[in-house]
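Study this one:
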Amino acid sequence: MRYFPILQELFESDTVIFLIIGIAVSVFAGLRLKTIGSIL
């Protein structure tokens, strides 16, 4: 359990917010590319 303090620090900082935004943007971009590909 030596990783627990690191995880706690991550969750207390803004890193998680940026991580969630990054995941959401990549998923959104993937869906957009899929729809563009089907149109072409």
Remarks:
- Residues 7 and 32 are 32 Å apart (CA to CA).
- Helices lie at 4-12, 15-39.
- The mean pLDDT is 81.
